[in-house]
Amino acid sequence: MKKRMHIILSAFLILLLAVVSSACGTQDTNADAGEQKSEKKELYSVGPLAGKRVALVMQLNLGTFSAQYISGVKEEVGRFGGQVTVFAADGDLGRMTANLDAAINQKFDAILIDHGTPAALQNGIKKAVSQNIPVVVFDADVKVPGVTVLQQGDKEMATSVLEKLAKDNGGKANIVKIWVAGFAPMERRQVAYKEFLKNNLGIKEVAAFGSATANTALDTQAQMEAVLKKYPNKGDITAVFAAWDEFAKGATRAIEQAGRTEIKVYGIDMSDEDLQMIQNPKGPWVASAAVDPKDIGRVQVRYAYQKLHGDKTPDSVELKSVLVTREELPAEKVTTDTLNKHIKDWGSSQQGIADWMKK
Fold first, then answer.
1. Are both 229 and 302 inside the same structural domain?
2. What InterPro entries does this protein's entry cite (predicted)?
């Protein structure tokens, strides 16, 4: 009898363990399925487009703006299930040409281009198109049939921030312009700048400089320090118009170190580092016009995948910019990821999302 009870008890324990094991196994499986479902929800419905290799060919990979732009590219390619390889030329256009050739020869599925000049890019882009490699360009003034070119609305950005400068100073100011030739977006910003001076006779340019180097912000700081020594008196300089955020950073640091914070800085472009400087209540940088750098990368990728999908894409796309001013920002720290809580239209671009990409 005892033996029989022992057998029954053993069988019951074995059955109980099996049930518990089974329940645990089911719980793990459901958890995995939930995680997979959550992950899948964040992917586009790409099907055969998954696993594509995308080359990002850059003239410069400099500063936090470029870092966040690259982040946007990688994030969006990842949503399609692809991989990104970055080819940075450190400002060397000859190297950029070679990098573009390398991307073509390595048979990347799509090529994204960031800045550059027609002379450096045109032949390589034509070669890529002839091999049916989709190409989407950002801020380079190239015109090749079948290639989509993105730009930020540079004239609009320059005009909006310059109008803010004029308004803040009652239409009268002595300003320093920091700008450099040889970049398509800079050239467009310069057109807006000339038109602004023509229409605002109370705004006078007292100095102008600028160069794009491996240490642009640091070099700008040194150049701005020299300008401040040349114009040492309060009122000699009212404001700085910086046509690139690397210029704005250098000018801001020079003004702070010289104790000349009555001089205000008005910039173009935006990054997390820039936001911290603008939010400083005692700092000179008070406004910047910009497109979310991550959005730029995301939109560029979407058009590349439209091309891979066989969609017809436009020759040119203009990205909508916003003006970010200190008075619109809260006291607590803001990043480009949280800026949309305070600045309408920031970081929420739906440009380039085709119907087939939507769930």
1. no
2. Bact_Solute-Bind_Prot2, Peripla_BP_I, SBP_2_dom
351 in a domain, yes or no? no
Backbone angles phi, psi at 276, to 5 degrees: -60, -40
Number of domains forming the structure of the chain: 2
Residue 254's domain is classified under what CATH number? 3.40.50.2300
Per-residue model confidence as pLDDT tens digits over 178-207: 999 988 899 999 999 999 999 999 999 999
Could you tell me the pTM of the whole model? Answer: 0.78
Asked if residue 9 is part of any domain, the answer here is no
Give the model confidence (pLDDT) of 220-253 as tens digits.
999 999 999 999 999 999 999 999 999 999 999 9
Closest CA to 272 of 355, 337, 321: 337
The secondary structure of the chain, three-state, reads: CHHHHHHHHHHHHHHHHHHHHHHHHHHHHHHHHHHHHHHHHCCCCCHHHCCCEEEEEECCCCHHHHHHHHHHHHHHHHHCCCEEEEEECCCCHHHHHHHHHHHHHCCCCEEEEECCCHHHHHHHHHHHHHCCCCEEEECCCCCCCCCEEEECCHHHHHHHHHHHHHHHCCCCEEEEEECCCCCHHHHHHHHHHHHHHHHCCCEEEEEEECCCCCCHHHHHHHHHHHHHHHCCCECCECEEEECCHHHHHHHHHHHHHCCCCCCEEEEECCCHHHHHHHHCCCCCEEEEEECCHHHHHHHHHHHHHHHHHCCCCCCEEECCCEEEEHHHCCCCCCCCCCHHHCCCCCCCCCCCCCHHHCC
Is 259 inside a domain boundary? yes
